[in-house]
Amino acid sequence: MKITTCIFDLDGVIVDTAKYHYLAWKRLAKEKFNKDFSIHDNEQLKGVSRVESLNILLRICNEDVPEKEKQQLTDLKNKWYVEYIKRITPDEILPGVLKFLEDVKNKKLYMALASASKNARLLLERIGLTYLFDCIVDGTVVTRAKPDPEVFLKCAEELGVEPQGCVVFEDAIAGIEAAHAGQMFAVGVGDKHILYKADMVISSFKEIVIDNVVNLPKTKKNE
Ligand code: G6P
Ligand code: MG
Known about the structure:
By secondary structure, the protein is α/β, with parallel strands linked by helices. Helix content is 41%, strand content 11%. It contains nine helices and six strands, in the order βαααααβαβαβαββα. It binds 6-O-phosphono-alpha-D-glucopyranose and magnesium ion. Magnesium ion is lined by residues 9, 11-13, 46-47, 171-172.
């Protein structure tokens, strides 16, 4: 099927906020439980909602807290995270992204943003890219976290396109799985050893041109 739509994750794909999420979770683990939270552990939190991220972190740290305290912990993590990202500027857009987004636009493909983050619109505004997207689905409207395909399927529905013609760009294992669960193509952005389930992996957008995306139907892995 012909590719009609490119769906982009935000954190770790368009802008490197993954490192700020990591710093905030690591700080929470240290200050609240005196536990070390490694960059390797952090892979499991990428693309996952705030509250589910806390549950995973608690499991990794071998800690448990009453349900009512979880809200305080996620609020604290978000407070630190928002402090870290307050100073983000368009300079932090990842290499090759702007050029690639412009190519997608010129090719007349739809462009959607699909993020589990409740801070997604704020971030997009800060980096000045809101105007490029035909559709934005973020953590304020999604009820099921990746690897559930909800966030991506909502984009397809809003745009009125078939999921099979959508390509998802993701830095998270859960995001690759979510794309495939939604019958979409998945391009991994990051380490090919971590994102090996993707139909194609790039380490940065400098490595890809729009024609690679249009040709993806020949290389689909999940069929
Ligand atoms: C993104 C990140 C996750 C983060 C989630 C929620 O998907 O990859 O690490 O937990 O968004 O973000 P939020 O800004 O709402 O806490
Ligand atoms: Mg991400």
